Amino acid sequence: MLTEAEKQQRYRMDDYYEYAHRPVMLKIERRVCGCDYGASSWTTKSEADLMANLLGIGPGSRLLDVGSGAGWPGLYLSKTTGCDLTLVDLPAFGLKMAQQRQTKESSDVSVWLALAEGAALPFIDNSFDAVCHADLLCCLVDKKSVLQACQEVLRPSKSMVFSVISVPLGLSDSDYRRALEAGPEFVASDDSYLSLLEQTGWTVLEDMNVTQSFLQLTQNRLDTERSHQDELLLSTEPETVKRRIIDLERRRDALADGLLRRDLFVVKSDK
């Protein structure tokens, strides 16, 4: 069950997807991330390629992308590896854009879309050979239930790869408040992700600290949006452009000061 704050976040996502698919925003995304999906995660093309290798997927594999948004990186992973793909998300607006993208690119792989919460996946147990999600858990309150649901639908001894932004343990009260202000809306967690993964029956194969590359990505995004500010103002309210710059500056500073981190996990089901 979604909290009221999560419901409000979902409503705002429709506005975000519309904004992210404006031509100038797609141009910025291509320059910074190497893709143009109007993505809601911070996954670059190079990181998506790494995810494909870590998942070990190929033709005949069934991949589940949870919280897939407009289809990045799931559609790209399916296109480059030949695996069959299922995209899951709420609300529907991002999935509609993913469907349009898939229709436009018309690949030979099978792609299914499901409107569902990550904590209540509508699939039978042991349905998938691989699971991925990109910066999803830091945008949800109930992180543990999502990890449990992914465990149930993944086949035994298969892998899940995901990225997540988190707040390091042991911060002072003032630094913790700064981290919450700079991170995604639900970045806070009572437990570390290593603990959450252990609690939900996952074995951690790799935990890659990708904070420095995320810091560089944030700086690149900030610089690129600043350089396109005049173009952005032609299609966007000045207050929105100003707020995005402030948010990027706040996140960059929090990352540089060690108040946020980003990890890429490779985990295996224990069942």
Describe this entry's structure for a reader.
Helix 7 (173-182) crosses helix 11 (238-256). The chain has one domain (4-269): Vaccinia Virus protein VP39 (Rossmann fold). Helix content is 48%, strand content 20%. The chain is of the alpha/beta class. The mean pLDDT is 94. Strand 4 (128-134), helix 6 (143-153) and strand 5 (154-166) form a beta-alpha-beta unit. Strands 3-2-1-4-5-7-6 form a 7-stranded mixed beta sheet, with helices on both faces. The protein is built from 11 helices and 7 strands.
Write the layout of secondary structure elements.
Blueprint (H helix, E strand, L loop, with lengths): L3 H17 L2 H11 L11 H11 L6 E5 L7 H8 L2 E6 L2 H14 L5 E5 L12 E7 L8 H11 E13 L6 H10 L10 H7 L2 E8 L1 H17 L1 H5 L4 H19 L4 E9 L2
Parallel strand pairs: 1-2, 1-4, 2-3, 4-5
Antiparallel strand pairs: 5-7, 6-7
Helix pairs in contact: 2-9, 3-4, 7-11, 9-11
Give the key terms:
48% helix; alpha/beta; 11 helices; Rossmann fold; seven-stranded mixed sheet
- CATH architecture field: 3-Layer(aba) Sandwich
Number of strands: 7
Q: State the strand order across the main sheet.
A: 3-2-1-4-5-7-6
Class, according to the CATH hierarchy? Answer: Alpha Beta
SSE order in H/E notation? HHHEHEHEEHEHHEHHHE
Sheet bearing the most strands, described? 7 strands, mixed
Report the uncertain regions.
none
Give the C-alpha Rg.
18 Å
Separation of the first and last Cα atoms: 26 Å
Can you identify the CATH superfamily? Vaccinia Virus protein VP39
Total tally of structural domains = 1
